[in-house]
Amino acid sequence: MSLIEITEVRKSFGSNEVLKGINLDVDPGEVIAIIGKSGSGKSTLLRCVNGLENIDSGSISVAGAQLQPDELHLKALRLKVGMIFQQFNLFPHLTAGGNVMLSQTVVKKVPKPQAEAMARKMLERVGLEHKFDAYPDELSGGQQQRVAIARALAMQPIALLCDEITSALDPELVSEVLAVVRGLAKEGMTLMMVTHEMKFARDVCSRVVFMHQGRVHEIGPPAEVFADPKTPELKQFLGML
Amino acid sequence: MIEFSFWDILRNLLLATRWTVLLSLVAFIGGGLAGMLLLFMRIGRRRALRLFARYYVELFQGTPLLMQLFLAFFGLGLFGINVPAWLAAGVALILWTAAFLVEIWRGCVEAINKGQWEASASLGMGHIQQMRYVVLPQALRIAIPPTVGFSVQVVKGTALTSIIGFVELSKAGTVVTNATFQPFTVYGLVALIYFALCWPLSKSSQILERKLNVAHRNH
Ligand SMILES: Nc1ncnc2c1ncn2[C@@H]1O[C@H](COP(=O)(O)OP(=O)(O)OP(=O)(O)O)[C@@H](O)[C@H]1O
Ligand SMILES: [Mg+2]
User: Fold this and answer.
1) For chain A, what is the mean pLDDT?
2) Could you give the angle at the alpha carbon of B211 between the alpha carbons of B29 and B132, nearest 5°?
3) How many whole angstroms separate alpha carbon B190 and alpha carbon A94?
4) How far is the centre of ligand 2, averaged over its atoms, from the C-alpha of B192 (Å)?
5) Is the CB of residue A132 less than 8 Å from the CB of residue A95?
6) pLDDT value at B214 more than 80
7) Per mean pLDDT, which of B8-17, B30-39, B63-72 is the most reliable?
8) In which compartments does the protein localize (chain A) (predicted)?
């Protein structure tokens, strides 16, 4: 059974229909790269899966549970699916450790010592155990993004959504974040990531989704999609036309 | 006629200043608490409460404080409720202060990046948790300078309560003037005392603002 099932999902902002019937099933352990032009609806799709946007029609289910827009269902969903943002969105008034601990203690009611132990373990996993007491503005962009990943992992999600998580980084910091994601993929984490890192998509992803004008325009294993694009739109996007 | 020395005048004014200070504190603390409640309504999920808070602010910001004092003092009297001046003054100033603080604070909450709401939501936090642990700690920090700055307006606002007969600094000034016929000395001293109360407040607001703008801006 698929872990994430996206069926005929439609989403409009006013009269602008951004998602025009998306179908996509993601199996456990799959790493999905979502590529496509600006405005094709990639971020909107991820945000719908996490309930940050309400869908107009169709359905999304995660691990068998339907996405519903009330606070209780949303909370249950978000405990299963973590999200990493382009702009990191760390809590600036808390240390790296505090960032990773907060939602554990507040949402899951984990006692503080356990939350701290988990935070240290997760920071170690992203190579930042020594930055436990550093505030976000004392960290580089790459470090901040890794803390954000640790923060999401501490909730022990079964899948992670990543929206262009390296796009706000200086080029020399991109690889440290991608290395962390690569590690997660190896450990079997289910990932849906919007990315412009084509080489990374080719190396790490199980499938590539090419979105065009609110639809899944082409989908397949990276070898196929990159080497042998079927549609002129994908060819053009990949710079082959 | 009794002769008033300079020190008599000053002593009388300083005694009345206690009431100005007390009324300011009551207005500021009470207004702060009421303002916090209104803030939760204003940015909460419930439409009816949001509208209530909005109209409350518009009503109290859109009418002179003096009218609010009159209404609290004389208005309730019409219903046979005898409101003492201190009560009317306290209630009116609390409501008035709350209306301004809630707008100051709402601006600070809205200055918090939308990404903070989304990140905390994506971690499973509910609205109240997001407010309590993520948004308010950041918003209150940036709210401190304008809030302290506004306290100056509260102190000056207390002067109006002299009109409904509450004996604070301004009213004492009038009383002492009538007894001494030295308006210039008396009102000069009154002004100096107000200045001594307000200046440290506005100065510390400036200093706080500068402090928060330099170095570690975020924590
Ligand atoms: N909150 C919103 N309100 C109105 N329109 C929106 C909103 N969010 C997105 N859109 C519109 O939806 C369309 C798709 O946006 P989306 O962010 O999903 O694109 P994207 O594929 O992620 O693009 P990019 O590569 O630039 O991030 C765009 O036309 C955008 O203007
Ligand atoms: Mg996007």
Assistant:
1) 94
2) 50
3) 46
4) 59
5) yes
6) no
7) B30-39
8) Cell membrane
* CB distance B160 to B25 below 8 Å: no
Q: What pLDDT, on the 0 to 100 scale, is given for residue A88?
A: 94
Q: In what order do the strands lie in the sheet with A31-36?
A: A81-84, A159-163, A190-194, A31-36, A207-212, A215-220
ipTM here: 0.93
Name the more confident of B214 and A32. Answer: A32
Chain position carrying tokens 């709350």: B98
Distance in angstroms (rounded) separating the CA atoms of residues B86 and B107: 32
pLDDT score at B1: 54
Average pLDDT, chain B: 90
| pLDDT of res. B187 | 93
| Amino acid residing at A59 | S
Q: By the CB < 8 Å criterion, does B112 face chain A?
A: no
* Residue among A34, A42, A165, A215 whose CB has most ligand 1 atoms within 8 A, to mutate: A42
Cβ separation of B113 and A89 shorter than 8 Å? Answer: yes
Listed by start position, the domains of chain A span 4-40+53-237
CATH number of A4-40+53-237: 3.40.50.300
The domain B6-218 having CATH identifier 1.10.4080.10: the answer here is no
- Name the residue facing A78 among B115, B122, B133 (closest C-beta): B122
Q: Where are the beta strands (DSSP E) in chain A?
A: 4-13, 16-26, 31-36, 57-62, 65-66, 81-84, 159-163, 190-194, 207-212, 215-220
A contact residues 105-134, partner B, Cβ 8 Å cutoff: 106-108
Q: Which H helix or E strand runs over A5? A: strand A4-13
Question: Do residue B127 and residue A71 have CB atoms under 8 angstroms apart?
Answer: yes
- What's the whole-number mean pLDDT along residues A135-162? 95
Average pLDDT over residues B120-131: 93
B196 Cβ neighbours under 8 A, 6+ residues apart: none
